[in-house]
Amino acid sequence: MLTIYDIAKKAGVSAATVSKVLNGRSDVGKNTIENVKRIIEELGYQPNSIARGLATKKSKTVGVFFQDHLNTGFRHHFLQDILASFKDVIGEYGYDLMFFANNHPENQVETFEARAKNRNVDGLFLLGVPRTDPNLIGIAKSSIPCMSIDLDLIGKNANYLCSDNIGGAMMAIDFLVEMGHSKIAFISDVFVTKPGSDRLTGFKMAMEKHKLPIVDNWIIPSDFSENGGYHSVKKLLVSDELPSAIFCAGDMMAIGAMDAIREAGMKIGEDISVIGFDDITLLKYVTPRLTTIRQKKETMGQMAAKELFKLMNDSDYSTSPLMIETELVIRDTVANINSSSFK
């Protein structure tokens, strides 16, 4: 088996010098680096990543805890897009991803911190982990650099990133009011996640800003799923008085809401308007085309990777939460009831 000692002998240098070249150290002469690299290529040497990790105390691996309340895993329509762009950027920095499974009893006993240290990962990326997870206290206090999405995790080596969910929700209500709507219902988040809580806050702030009534029976908790949105709006449609518009805290709930409206014999965007939140890729297959608040998923994944890289490689780096602006995407599901056809 070819070793660095064989490379060193042929190059006429020490094994320590070969190790420095393999690990990109700058304290080696240019000619020596070129000579060692030429011999490595000539002999077809493949460095042992585990041995290199022991020497450098870096595994060049990022651990990923990927969870969601509905157990959809990598099929999650929002998180999968963030993860894809995160992977692309962190890969450009030379890191691999290691996914931690959570469906084995032993994995549920051992803490995130212990599992990360056992696997010698250089950093952690958390997606979909609920605020109530007991592992978060240890991770926030640990020495392991950690980046999370939509989870307000703060610590010496931890930071988080989210969309402007309050601003996005206010943008949705502002648009509905502009279109003449004053009777607005909200399908909210039963799990009390940070995005769900912020969107409810934004909804209430915008309603108060426009001096519109907030009807308790028109705020119905759901679970971010299509089925959840369907059943929540089924309950809403038996109310004595119906809203003219429904704002859903997530696009999947909005898709379910549209099914319930159709089933009731009503027309979406005419009898009742619907607006969602996320702008998931699946919407290209939905009819009528859903008006929604777009989260910039690719930007979120890219920025999360860059932030984690700083946390892993700069011990003096000072963290602060990152927020990404949202944008309104106008399509076909919101009626303009100011127009003459609705008077």
Automatic annotation (TrEMBL):
Q: Which SMART domains match?
A: HTH_LACI (SM00354)
Q: Does the keyword Aminoacyl-tRNA synthetase apply?
A: no
Q: Which domain of life is it from?
A: Bacteria
Q: Which residues form the HTH cro/C1-type domain?
A: 2-50
Q: Which residues form the HTH lacI-type domain?
A: 2-56
Q: Which UniProt keywords apply?
A: DNA-binding, Repressor, Transcription, Transcription regulation
**Molecular function GO labels:** DNA-binding transcription factor activity; transcription cis-regulatory region binding
Pfam families on file: LacI (PF00356), Peripla_BP_3 (PF13377)
Name of the protein in question = LacI family transcriptional regulator
